[in-house]
Write a structure and sequence with these properties.
226 residues; alpha/beta; seven-stranded mixed β-sheet; 6 helices
Length: 226
C-alpha cells in the first residue's frame, strides 16, 4: 500500500464524524476507530505551557484521521470537536462519556481502536511516548508493540519506554475490539509540551502512528485464518 507523505498542513474536516474512503473499492480496508481523549468540560492534563490535553489530542487525531483516509481506510471518530460524549442526564458525565466511547467502538466492527492522549508527571524531566494495551489482549499487545517501535524509530530514538499492559483503564478493559492508548508525550515536560503544540510535530506523530496502524492491519490481513 502506498503511503502518502504529507508535506503541508492538512485541511481538518470538522463536520463529519465518520470518514468514508474515496476509493472505488469501498470497504476494501478495515475500519479504524480514532478516539481523541477527554473534551468539553474535561480538559485532561494541563501542560506546563498551558496547553490543554483535550486540544492536543483532537489536533493529532484529526491529522491522523486525514492521513489514514487518504490511504484508503474507513475511519470513525469518537469526537471531531471540543465536546464530551455525555448528556449530563445520566449521573457522572465521565462515566457516561466513557460508556458512549465504548459503545461506539463496539458497534464499529473496527480492526483496531486507537485512543490518543498526553501524559503528565510530577517530575518535569520525565518524557517520551508510551503505548498501553489491555493485559490479556494478544491483538492489543501486538498493536501496542508495533506502535511503540514505530514511535521510537520515527519520532524519538532515545525513548527507552516499552508498551505496557494494563487491567484498570476503562477503555481497554471494556472493549472487545483490539484497543490501544497512545500517550504521545508528557505535557509536564517543557521541551516535549512545546513540541506537542506545534503543527509540524503533530504531523510527525500522526504520520508514524498511521504507519504503525497500517503495519498492524497488513499483518492481520496476512495472518492465516483459523
Amino acid at each position: 500500500m502506498a503511503i502518502c507523505l504529507l508535506c503541508s498542513m492538512y485541511y481538518l474536516a470538522r463536520t463529519a464524524v465518520i470518514y468514508t474512503m474515496q476509493q472505488e473499492k469501498r470497504g476494501e480496508q478495515p475500519v479504524i476507530v480514532l478516539d481523541a481523549g477527554h473534551g468539553g468540560e474535561d480538559p485532561g492534563k494541563i501542560g506546563i505551557n498551558g496547553a490543554l490535553e483535550k486540544d492536543v489530542n483532537l489536533q493529532i487525531t484529526m491529522r491522523l484521521a486525514r492521513l489514514l483516509q487518504q490511504n484508503g481506510y474507513h475511519v470513525i471518530l469518537t469526537r471531531n470537536e471540543d465536546k464530551g460524549l455525555y448528556t449530563g442526564n445520566q449521573g457522572s458525565k465521565k462515566v457516561e462519556d466513557l460508556k458512549n466511547r465504548i459503545a461506539l467502538i463496539e458497534s464499529s466492527g473496527a480492526a483496531l481502536a486507537v485512543s490518543i492522549h498526553q501524559n503528565s508527571y510530577s517530575a518535569e524531566g520525565v518524557c517520551g511516548a508510551q503505548v498501553f494495551y489491555y493485559e490479556t489482549s494478544e491483538a492489543g499487545k501486538e498493536a501496542a508493540q508495533i506502535m511503540q517501535q514505530e514511535l521510537i524509530r520515527g519520532v524519538d530514538p532515545d525513548n527507552k519506554r516499552m508498551p505496557k499492559g494494563n487491567n484498570t483503564y476503562y477503555l481497554l478493559k471494556k472493549s472487545t475490539v483490539p484497543t490501544i492508548i497512545v500517550e504521545c508525550g508528557f505535557l509536564s515536560n517543557q521541551a516535549e509540551a512545546d513540541k506537542l503544540v506545534t503543527g509540524a510535530y503533530q504531523e510527525r506523530l500522526a504520520f508514524h502512528i498511521a504507519m504503525a496502524v497500517m503495519q498492524y492491519v497488513s499483518g492481520m490481513q496476512k495472518a492465516p485464518s483459523a
